[in-house]
Design goal:
The radius of gyration is 27 Å and the shape is elongated. About 50% of the residues lie in helices and about 20% in strands. Helix 6 packs parallel to helix 14. The chain has 14 helices and ten strands.
Length: about 350
Amino acid sequence: MAARRAKNDGDRQGANELNERKRKVLWAVVQDYADTAEPVGSRTIARKYDLGVSSATIRNEMQDLEDEGYLEQPHTSAGRIPSIKGYRFYVDWLMQPSPVTSEEESMIDSMLLNHVTRVDEIFRNMAKAVAALTHNLSVATSAGSKKKFNYIRFLPLDGIRAILLVVSDQGDVSNAVVEIPKGTTFDGMQLLADKMNYFLHDREIAAMDEKTILSFQKEIEKDLSPYVNVFKALQQALTPPKEVYSGGASQLIEQPEFKNVEKMQDILNLLEQRDMLQSMLLSSSDQPIAVHIGTENTVKSLSDLSIVRAQFSSNGRVIGSVAVLGPTRMQYSRIIGMMRFMQQRLDTLLKNKE
């Protein structure tokens, strides 16, 4: 309780950092820079946004905001742009999620309804849809269903090899070619499979590891060292592939921030790091939608980007995640509003399916 009270006190203190006029000026700078990618001057704010004060007053407020770290001046004679601190205050205190348009709603509903029977297909197509709608890079992954072990079986291939089949409770089949260990026979391998089927039946596949194999060895009181390669093949067959779906890389190139070839190459290289991306997407969060801005991202190749990540749940369990990666001047309100809509829609569809 004390920790929660301290957090709430900190939240209130953060909310009161800026007076109403500075809030309006900061909001206007963020909005204009998101639209134009050009530093914003006081005259632009006075002309385009009805703040009820003169250009000179806005200029003074912008200077104060710069002194306090909310704005930056990239060039001596240029206007200002938001800093990471400025974006953070905007996202936490000034921004209101935008409602989706009827066209966006129709596209999202069509995408979800066509694939609601397959969770992995939902997130594959969600990555494409989000990229098309936001004109940014998107990545997505499904957490995978809790598949359970059903049985394994060996099929004879030739005198020295067999085919290992692994079947889950959902009917998914994985296979691998394994050598028949010296000193044993195909019938001996099948006898081992029968014992393993009894031992592993109905266990969650994701929870199986080397300790499981060792406990099986202890259970049957038999030296399984000749079967090392068989068990390696079994573990690989049980391990689901790292499926990370992406879309929109070509659209990100069109953003002025990424005309630099080296920056874009870093992002393209990032898409190859599937383990890291999946870890980022599925890492635990106390927020259904999390925003990480620029250098708030710990991975160097992400330090020039903002990431809006939405996690999707069903019956209290995370089933997947989608993230939008774009310049720090991205349209946070529109993207967050879209993510919230998709979370609500998918939750409703999955409940109706049940």
